[in-house]
Write a structure and sequence with these properties.
It is a single chain. The protein has about 250 residues and is an alpha/beta fold. It has a single domain, classed as 3-Layer(aba) Sandwich (Rossmann fold), CATH 3.40.50. It contains eight helices and seven strands. The protein is globular, with a radius of gyration of 17 Å.
């Protein structure tokens, strides 16, 4: 059975970024695994529950499990690294290298170098995954990351600007791109992706999955998912995998 491995920084990053591709892979008979670096314990809570870091972390792990169940991925594993602290942490690259060896995935998904909207945890994890992948012996698994349209995530970027330094890194013009290697149509699983986002209830003002980000972002993520290849150009093996996910 082929294996897809998604490596994410926080609960919810599996859903909006490549939830459709995970759902398509699972429907095609792939084993889908999710590894999550943090419990997202430092985020705001919007469901009225206890708002201590410990309580938020427990709730978000439960929500991640619900999202994975909806996507038909296996129950996730959460590493317990500090939410908001990955860029200052010792690299988890050796742990990721062990995962790549032990799980032998065919396809690895993680967030890109812009972190979708620049979040330092996102960009730190990207570099850890890419470094571990580069250290893998050949043949390496395919490593892809999502590419979002330029400007789409800038409203969320502005919310995170206080974390990005002065001047902010990445710069606003480095968030999103028109250039990508693959596009996966996800209309047939868009409802599943939406339900996976909705599983992250503590992150949703008014329990609205559209409200996980500023207006218009979630709606723009429901037709297709675009990816760049870590090799720097489209690769026949990765392209064939993604084609095989489609009905």
């Amino acid at each position: 059975m082929p294996t897809l491995l998604a490596i994410i920084p926080h609960p919810d990053d599996e859903s909006y970024s490549f939830g459709g591709t995970i759902a398509l892979a699972a429907r095609s008979g792939w084993r889908c695994l999710v590894e999550c670096a943090t419990a997202g314990e430092c985020g705001k809570r919007h469901d009225g529950g206890l708002a201590t870091e410990a309580a938020i972390g427990r709730a978000r792990i439960r929500e991640l499990r619900d999202s994975c169940r909806i996507l038909r991925a296996e129950p996730p594993r959460v590493w317990g690294l500090p939410d908001g602290g990955l860029s200052a942490s010792v690299s988890a690259g050796p742990h990721i290298a062990d995962l790549l060896h032990d799980l032998a995935p065919d396809l690895v998904l993680t967030l890109g170098p812009d972190g979708a909207y620049g979040h330092p945890d996102h960009t730190a994890l990207h570099h850890w995954v890419r470094d571990a992948w580069l250290a893998c012996p050949e043949p390496r698994p395919a490593l892809l990351w999502p590419v979002f349209p330029p400007g789409l995530f800038l409203p969320q970027y502005d919310r995170c600007r206080h974390m990005l330094g002065d001047p902010p890194s990445p710069a606003p013009g480095e968030v999103g791109s028109d250039t990508f290697d693959y596009e996966v149509p996800i209309a047939t699983v868009a409802a599943i992706k939406r339900d996976a986002i909705a599983a992250h209830r503590t992150q949703l003002p008014g329990a609205d999955p559209q409200a996980i980000f500023p207006p218009g972002i979630v709606a723009a993520l429901m037709a297709s998912e675009r990816f760049s290849d870590a090799c720097g150009s489209p690769q026949p093996r990765a392209a064939a995998m993604l084609r095989n996910f489609l009905p």
